[in-house]
TrEMBL record:
Species whose genome carries this gene: Sphingomonas melonis
Cited PANTHER family: TRANSCRIPTIONAL REGULATOR, MARR FAMILY, TRANSCRIPTIONAL REGULATORY PROTEIN
Location of the HTH hxlR-type domain: 1-83
Entry's Gene Ontology molecular function annotations: DNA binding
Lineage: Bacteria, Pseudomonadati, Pseudomonadota, Alphaproteobacteria, Sphingomonadales
Keywords: DNA-binding, Transcription, Transcription regulation
Protein name in UniProt: DNA-binding HxlR family transcriptional regulator
Amino acid sequence: MLVLRDVARGVQRFDALQKGLGIAPNILTRRLAALVEDGLLERRRYSERPPRHEYVLTAMGRDYLPVLHALGAWGARHFGDDSVVRLVAADGHVVQPMVIDAVTGAPLADMTLTVKTAAP
């Protein structure tokens, strides 16, 4: 999740990701490869000599961002100081992510839900 968070913030090159995350290069290489293989990131070459790549969110990766924002807000609310990291809209207001039902507009937190699996 942290790799996706940083790529979404514009940190797209290996060295910058490694420095920001503070992880070993072999671990980051594996995580990036998995995210590319899973379709969340795309690897793009930005230099031929030496060969260098950057990582950008795919459509699937961009679709994941609301989930990442909601998890971040939940974590800040329950485990951290929500004044440190804020999600701010273009007009300057602090966004409070909420998951809603697209049909009714009702917050899922207010609904009684059951989980049903699709029939094989």
